[in-house]
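Board notes (copied after class):
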Amino acid sequence: MTGLRERTRRAVRAELADVALRLFAERGFDQTTVDEIAQAAGLTKRSFFRYFPAKEDAVFGGVDVTGEQVVDDIRARPGDEDPWQSLHQVLCRWQQQIHASEQALASLRLIESTPSLRARLHEKRAHWRQQVSDALRDRPDAGLDAFTADLLTNAATAALDTVSHEWLRSGGTADRAALLDRAFTLIRPALPAR
């Protein structure tokens, strides 16, 4: 269970990320300074850096918060539940929050058009994948080895990436839930019985 202090920190990070994304959309990523973001959020530049180590990280603030919640939810799934089913259930629950807004569409477009953000996205995904893999294995009585957990996590990430690409290609009109269900069904692994 996450404590009040951590929930408050996550909320401030998410709000700061929202402000940054709005400014990036209005002015452009490279044209927006950390000072401008901090001022628009009612904070100091120093406070900004307490929440984000770099300007690029503000783009991913909401994603980081949601990623942490996804990891918490995966850890809370029953250990005897099929790990692919655990990933599917949790990601279905969160996919609407992850991408169901105009801001998410704007964020994806910003990332795709900014080389430094694409590079940061690769770093973030690697970190997130490791956390999800660890969470799959940490479930009580899961009995899942590291190789299988990594493989399942990477397959789920590929499904999410493909769904995001199709959603972006559709201008944000594609049904993400239906696409995610389809992706998980198409690549469902044949896991050995335990």
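Comment from the instructor: The radius of gyration is 18 Å. The CA atoms of residues 107 and 117 lie 10 Å apart.
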